[in-house]
Amino acid sequence: MEIKKEKNGSALKLTLIGKLSIQEAKDLGKVIDEELSDVTDLTFDIKELTYVSSAGLRVLLTAQNIMDDAGGTMKLLNVSPFIMDVLKLTGFNKFMNIEN
Fold first, then answer.
1. What distance lies between CA 99 and its chain's CA centroid?
2. Contacts of 23 (CB under 8 A, 6+ apart)
3. Residue 97 forms beta bridges with which residues?
4. Which of 16, 25, 72, 80 is the most interior residue, by most CB within 10 Å?
5. What's the whole-model pTM score?
6. What is the pLDDT of residues 23-74, one digit of tens each?
């Protein structure tokens, strides 16, 4: 998976391309640990995300919790129908801000 980062002040946009499976979730977790200390607006553009595992969902949940604790916001952009099905099956669509 490729992770593209765009930071503008306290806003961070992460574009995820490919599959978010176990190893990629670890890589994304490292990026989140390194980048979120001064971020109040986190956006994941997942238009080109083709797969997300439970480990990937866990990283997204961790990012959501970090942003909630910091009083920030997090949103998912450009969610494909396949990924939306996964989010609905797991209930993530009920507490994550999803914009298409």
1. 12
2. none
3. 75
4. 16
5. 0.95
6. 999 999 999 999 998 999 999 999 999 999 999 999 999 999 999 999 999 9
11: tokens are 């806003």
Best CA proximity match to 46, nearest among 34, 32, 36, 60: 60
Q: Are 49 and 71 in contact (CB under 8 A)?
A: no
Closest CA to 57 of 76, 38, 35: 76
Q: Edge-to-edge, what's the strand order for the sheet holding 41-52?
A: 2-8, 11-20, 41-52, 73-77, 97-99
Which residue type is seen at 53? S
Query: Do the beta carbons of residue 65 and residue 92 sit within 8 Å?
Result: no
